[in-house]
Protein: MFS transporter
Organism: Orrella marina
Amino acid sequence: MSNIVLRIAALVLCFGILFGFGMTSLTGVLDALAERFELDTAAQEILVSILVICCFIGAILAGPLSSRYGRRVCMLFAAALMILCYVLILGEPTYTGLLVARCGLGLGIGLSSMVVPMYAAEVTVARHRGAVVALFQLAITAGILIAYSVSFLFALTWPWTHVLGVGVVFAVAALLLARALPESPHWLAAVGQSKKARQVASSLGLHTELPELDESAQAHRDTEALTTTRPAPASASRRSIVSVLALCGGLFVLQNLSGIDGILYYAPHIFQTMGFDAGKAALGATLGLGLVNFLATLVALKYVDTAGRRPLLLYGAALMSIGMGMVTLASLYQWSWMGLAGLCLFIMAFAISLGPLPYVMMSELFPTAFREKGIAAASSISWLFNALIAFTFLTVVQWISLTGVLLFFLGVCLLSWLIAYLYLPETRGTSLERIEANVISGKRLRDLGRNE
């Protein structure tokens, strides 16, 4: 693996850690914050979900911003914004100040969640592309593990500001790495800077993709002219693009409704409900989940470009269903250790399937002319349902019990397997330009990864 690919991977790693840490760092200090600011259940849900809601807004803004100003500028802005917010947190803000800081973190995370996988897919050679993009999910799990580890080790001794403020280290690293990498050649070609695009593509080792890059840029300009001069025609290509959006958006909906968000945000509460003692026992079980999540994602990273997208998602969704079934039984009968085993199985299966693959698929399937808007739409859908879970989980558990919520998650896991079986294409080893040609020609979803 070349030096440039390693630098791209490091960038993806830092932004992914910021994602995972920012989303879950509150888990270990939520009780302390509830006591410090006298928060009821609704106020706790607001504190958790405000970041996710702003992630949704950031994902919506990501498409037009990255299209106009470029991927690199958006990444620089996201990193700088997160640095400012972590500095605010380290200053021990009031409850209102903490909400403002989490809003800013959400905007930065939402923006980077769309731009970074897209950038990585556009600047990485095809043989490493799947692994580098999937590294984003591994980094998210690393950020989650870091957040859980800091909470387990220091939540009872450190001020909550320090527990939450650790993320500033990764924000600074992300800013420095983004400054050291070039703009995406796909974006440069799309805005008419063909000479510079070819120079950057050559420096990135994309030699074999240079002719296809010119064709992709011309297709982008032709499509832009078409959409600005007259209404889009009802064509096979348009239907295919809508199908891609439906698949990618649907994968993110299934990802968020599978139960992963409720587990990550409220794991200590879930473990206490299943019979674990509050405090170190619940935090320790939560840390165990984070470790399993990270290790399983590491395995997925190794096999995403060899085992293929379809097998990973099909086998993963099946194992997720088994794990969630175990957790449901454990919740019903208060079998705490069976619940922990079921959650570990669920997390392992999620980490090799529905965790990384939606990011890989959305970065691969959208044509250049629609990539910013398509990925922004898919990411926005993801954050919308993520926010829904964060904002309602504790309340819904009070209404229908934890067992009822887990049964719903089980149904979503089963539906994920069915959707993958019917529609998911295999894109392993296929160039972005070949996939784009298949989409434009109107091929069905299952055939978009074919090279002929």
In short: The first helix runs from residue 3 to 24. Confidence is low (pLDDT under 50) at residues 226-234.
